[in-house]
Amino acid sequence: MGSFKNNDELVDYLVNSGVLKSKFLVRAWRQVSRADFVPAKLRPQAYADEPLPIGLGQTISQPSTVAFMLELLRPEPGQRVLEIGAGSGYVAALLAQVVGERGEVIALERIAPLVQQAKKNTERYHFSWLELLHADGGLGYSDGGEFDRILVSAAAVALPPELSPQLGLNGRLVAPVGEYPQDIILRERTSEGFKEQHYPGFVFVPLLSGKVAGE
Ligand code: SAH
To answer: How far does the centroid of ligand 1 lie from the alpha carbon of residue 9, in Å?
Structure first.
């Protein structure tokens, strides 16, 4: 498990290990520094390929796991993307960097103080097309119309059936699902219906229902 001095070293490691491949993602990863998304006292570990605590019992995901999920998700410039479980805002920022100003990212987080933190963490990037909302995303974002991409960043026991209709044609949904350890699921909407692939052996914090004001 790598530990690195700066963001570029972390990106080089993810590329060299083969998990990070596509040009939009590599470019975004170089522009979004993970150190902006971890608590100040954990900054020295910000570039390690490890999950780290962000407070309120939650974690910023392990970079190689994020890379694996985003390679399956395949976000592209100009797309509308929904993230459920924004946490620190790190993955939302990577997505916003990829889709760019012609795109849109809506990221939902159920714990209010984390939403505030994520807004602060992403401020310096000036992503006017990124919306961080305090909301329970357990059933997705039904007011949001169709999305090109949906990323779930917390694990549900089963994939909520409400999510699939929120995916547009040729849309891709990536979500961790099941009991510990979880599978990462890729669900694609094609003209013939839905296709699903499972990738076992990942660990995520649970997808819970209800909004939390925070203590
Ligand atoms: N993508 C985040 C990972 C955070 S961990 C990052 O880059 O930091 C997953 C997050 O999902 C936690 O912050 C948790 O509070 C949130 N979460 C869990 N259930 C949720 C729900 N139903 N709606 C919205 N957020 C939820």
So the answer is: 27
Query: Which mean pLDDT values do the consecutive 10-residue runs of the chain (215 residues) have?
Result: 88 98 98 98 96 96 97 98 98 98 98 98 98 97 94 96 97 97 97 97 94 80
* CATH superfamily, region 63-202: Vaccinia Virus protein VP39 (3.40.50.150)
Encoded amino acid at 201, one letter: G
- Regarding the beta carbon of 88 and ligand 1, being less than 6 Å apart is answered yes
Asked if 209 is an active-site residue, the reply is no
State the amino acid at position 204 in one-letter form. Answer: F
Q: Where are the beta strands (DSSP E) in 61-181?
A: 80-84, 104-109, 130-134, 147-152, 167-177
84 Cα–ligand 1 center, Å: 6
**Does the model's pTM come out above 0.90?**
yes
Q: Is 34 in the pocket of ligand 1 (CB under 6 A)?
A: no
Domain assignments of the chain as residue spans, ordered by start = 63-202
